[in-house]
Amino acid sequence: IVGYGSIGSQLSVLAEAMGMRVLFYDIAERLAIGNARRLRSLDELLASSDIVSLHVDGRPANRNFFGRDQMDKMKPGAILINLSRGSIVDINALSDKLADGSISGAGIDVYPEEPDANGDPFDSPLISFPNVFLTPHIGGSTVEAQESIGYFVTGKLMDYWRKGATELSVNLPHIASSPSLDSLYRISWIHHNTPGALAQVNQVFANAGANINRQILATEGDIGYMVTDLSGDLPPNTVEQLAESEQNIRLRVLKREY
Predict the structure, then answer these.
(1) CATH number at residue 13
(2) Is there a contact between 165 and 252 (Cβ–Cβ < 8 Å)?
(3) What is the pTM of this model?
(4) N or C: which end of the chain has fewer CB within 10 A?
(5) DSSP assignment of 231-252, as one string?
């Protein structure tokens, strides 16, 4: 398993229940579930696995993440499964490997180019292979899955509204922390990611005598997101000064309700 996040780790449980020996690789530190074993390099995993299943995200840096070089390092006759993003696998390289038999089969449900609507033609170099399963990426399209997604998304929106948390956001840096128990206020600040922005904010707090008991900053590209927890009263004019900053995009003040 390449990518041992939420989906990869769930697959790990199912695979082990079916009697498979599970190896996984992830760039982040992940605790193994059950008897799964973490390997420290992708090359080691590819050389040791009869079936390789990809579960990495679709960030631009992962485009063609799994190409000809990685396929060359797989065990002869291994199987490749990609159920993550269509841009992850070099489809032309996979087609060549299937043609020469070095990869014995594949299962794919995401593609670099997909039909926009029902009835549109679907074309892929993998269509001609009898040892390849090609399916639509519709696992999340059942009534039950859509209901669960609705609860999940609204829960994340409420976490942002109530706590300023942005975990799993697609357009903001991720901050998952809730306000500390002794916090009276949380300042939630979305801003332009420019040098010195944090220093300017903290100077405003310092000049006002604000008592900060926790502060978290995350940046992603041109956007920065910071939450600052205050254990005392919110000093006058602090919010106004932050809102007038050149870096400010959106500022919210969350007050703890007892």
Answers:
(1) 3.40.50.720
(2) no
(3) 0.67
(4) C
(5) SS---TTHHHHHHTSTTEEEEE
